[in-house]
Amino acid sequence: MTKPKVQLTPKEKSELFVEGVVTVVLLLLLNLSIAILINSAIINHTNLSELLKNAILFRYNFDSLPIQVFLISFMIVLDIIVLYWRLLRRYRQMQMRHVISELHYIAQGHFDHRINFVVENDLQRMVDSINSLVDSTVSAMNEERAIKKRNEELITNVSHDIRTPLTSIIGYLGLLQTMDFKDENIQHYMNIAYIKSQQMKVLADDLFDYTTVHERQVNINPNNFIVDDMLNQLAASFELEAKEKGIKIEVEVSPTRIEMNADNEKLGRVFNNLISNALKYGKKATLIKLTAKKQNNQIEFTVQNNGQKIPKSSLNRLFERFYRVENSRSTKTGGSGLGLAISKEIITLHHGQIFAKSNSKLTKFVIEMPLYFTEKN
C-alpha cells in the first residue's frame, strides 16, 4: 500500500503562499535595484556600453537579440530557481514539523502508532528508522511483559503450593511444642523449627499477596467506615507489643468522625505493615503516631515515629520488593521485605500514593488518597 504524502494544514498552505509572495516581492525589488545600477553605470560610462555590447555580440553572436532581453531572461530564470529553493526549504521544514509532532504523539505512550506518510529523501530514511526503532521497542516491551508475567505466575503458584504443607508443618510443630520432652535439645530445636516455619509462611503469604495485588488480580471491596474507629482499633491491636518495647501509640484525626469509602480490610493490611515496621525498625523510638486529615475529597494518613533516621539514599527504594535498609532490616526480625511493596500496590489500587520522609527527629510514611473510592476504566 502506497503511503500518502504529508497533508499540509490550511495554516501551513497559507504560510507557504505568503513565503512565495514575499520571495517574489524581494526578488522584484532586487531585480529593479540591479537594473537601475546597470543603467546608471552604462549612462555614466559610454565606453562601457559599447564595450559590453561588442563583447556579448562577439561571444554569443546575438545580432538580432537586444542585450536587455537576454539580461531579463537570465534574471527571470534565476528568480524562478531562488523561488523554488525557498519554497522547497520551507516545505521540508513543515515536513520536519509533522515528523516531530508524530514523535511527540508516540512518546506520550501511543506505541501502536507509526509515522505513515512519505517525506523527502534523507528525512524519509530518518522516518523509516524511527518506525523500525518503535517496532523494536514495542517488541522488547511485549517480551519483557511476557517474561515478567511468567515470573509472577511462577511465584504465585509456588507460594500457593508451599503454603498448604507449611500450614500442616506449623500445626504439627505447634502440637509437639505442647509436649514435655525430657531432652532439652529436642525442645530447643523444636522451637527453632517452629519459628523458622512461621517465617517461611510469612514469606510465602507475602509473595502470594504481592503477586496477586501487583497483577491487579485483587478486587477492591469498598465500604463505608469511620476513620477514627479504624485507627483506634489498629492502635489497640499493637498496644501490648508497643508497651513491651517502651513505645506509646497515639491517634489523631482532624476533623473527628471522618466517614470514608474504601476497602478497610486492605487498608488495615497497609497500616499493619507500617506500624509493624515502626516497631521493628524504629530504633530508640518512644512514640508512634497515627494521623488522618481530611482535605476536601482527599484524605492524608501518616504513620510516624521518632526513631532512627532512614538514610536518604534508601527513601526512594523502600517500596521496592525485597529491599532492606542496611544494618536495620534482617531476616532475624521476621520480615519478608515485601510489606511496603504490598502496601504501595494496595494504595495504588485505591488511586492514591504513598511515600516516606525521614530526618533526625522524625520518620514519616504519608498516604494521600481519595476519601471516596471510585472505579476507573
Task: Give a short overview.
The chain has 377 residues and is an alpha+beta fold. Helix content is 61%, strand content 12%.
N-to-C series of helices and strands: HHHHHEHHEEHEEHHEE
Look at the structure and give the mean pLDDT: 83
CATH topology of the largest domain: the name is: Heat Shock Protein 90
What Rg do the Cα atoms give? 39 Å
CATH architecture of the largest domain: 2-Layer Sandwich
Oligomer: single chain
Number of helices: 10
Output the strand order for the largest sheet.
2-4-5-7-6
Percent helix, as a range, is 55-70%
Low-confidence stretches: 56-64
Total of domains: 3
Notable features of this structure?
single chain, 377 residues, alpha+beta, Helix Hairpins, two-stranded antiparallel ribbon, 12% strand
